[in-house]
Amino acid sequence: MNIATKRWLPHTISAAALLVLLYPLAWLLATSLKPANEVMTSLDLWPSHLEWSNYTTALDGVSGVTVTHLLGNTLLIAGGAVLGNVLSCSLAAYAFARLRFRMSKVMFAFMVATLMLPHHVVLIPQYIIFNRLGLVDSYWPLILPKFLATEAFFVFLIVQFMRGLPRELEESARIDGCGPFRTYWSITLPLARPALITTAIFTFIWTWNDFFTQMIYLFAPEKYTITLALSSFVDQSSTSAYGPMFAMSVISVLPIVLFFFVFQRYLVQGMATSGLKG
Question: Keywords on this record (predicted)?
Fold first, then answer.
């Protein structure tokens, strides 16, 4: 094998793998522009003619609720979840990583053990609590738990990052008279930005794509998210409007793609350094 082949072979393999990974997105985009009779019958990737009316129908939304309203609902829930996880998980992580208190190791081990607890196990008790509080069919059950550091994965992620930060900075702040909260807010939190952005990215994507939890708590169509709207798009019509449904799928994917491309360098930096220790 000559030098030129050795140089281009990895790039060729990577390009082929990229095409395979991007094919589902290409299929989704092409299918969103197919006529109704070609969605399930034609195996061709590209439609015979572009059916732009699919996007017109998709923008009308479902049950009288427009796509703009659905995206606003989803953005409200995702934004609240991001804010809650970043604040509460960073506070809990700072306590585990920097503060000394009784049974801290036991509590940290118990917190890590909750990672193995399936979400469905706690779903029914949570639903009973929110139902008794009269918060069902509102956004509070989807946002409020995020402000209570219930995401053990993100707490563990930020703890690992904070343990790698130099303690000399915090000791200097303590000498200057800063308390634990001031040190956390002014010193540790800015230094932990890569881990916080990683937490924000994953929280945003997981919340935006969440279907099961939103289906449990949201009933009124005007409170639907884009994910719930997709599930009810076909059911509301006697005919299977797959074209508009795929068009709405493309619209729902765009915010995630934009969010990822804006913050992807912070994601790589956070994941690369969160496991390092100084």
Answer: Cell membrane, Membrane, Transmembrane, Transmembrane helix, Transport
* Cα-based distances in Å from 20 to 15, 27, 33, 185, 258: 9, 11, 21, 44, 21
Structure tokens at 128: 């009973």
| DSSP 3-state of 65 | strand
Judge contact between 95 and 156, C-beta under 8 A: no
pLDDT digits (tens, 9 = 90+) for 200-256: 989 999 999 999 999 999 999 899 999 888 877 665 544 567 788 888 889 998 888
Residue 146's identity, in one-letter code, is K
Range of the domain at 152: 66-223
Same domain flag for 129 and 185: yes
Q: In 3D, which of 148, 163, 145, 143 has the Cα closest to residue 89?
A: 148
The CA-to-CA distance between both ends of the chain, in Å, stands at 43
Taking the C-alpha atoms of residue 20 and residue 30, their distance in angstroms, rounded to an integer, is: 16
The total number of residues written for the chain in this structure: 278
Please state, in angstroms and rounded to a whole number, the distance separating the CA atoms of residues 97 and 183: 13
Query: Do both 71 and 147 map to the same domain?
Result: yes
3-class state of residue 83 by DSSP = helix
Residue type at 84?
G
Domain assignment present for 2: no
15 in a domain, yes or no? no
CA–CA separation, 147 vs 14, rounded Å? Answer: 41
Q: How far apart are CA 45 and CA 32, in angstroms?
A: 11
Q: What is the pLDDT of residues 243-255, one digit of tens each?
A: 888 888 899 988 8
Task: Say how far residue 57 (Cα) sits from the centre of its chain.
Answer: 27
* Sign of the CA dihedral running 269, 270, 275, 278: positive
Quick one: which of 183, 159, 182, 161 has its CA closest to 171? Answer: 183
Number of domains in the chain: 2
Taking the C-alpha atoms of residue 10 and residue 7, their distance in angstroms, rounded to an integer, is 7
Predicted confidence band at 275 (pLDDT cuts at 50, 70, 90)?
A: very low
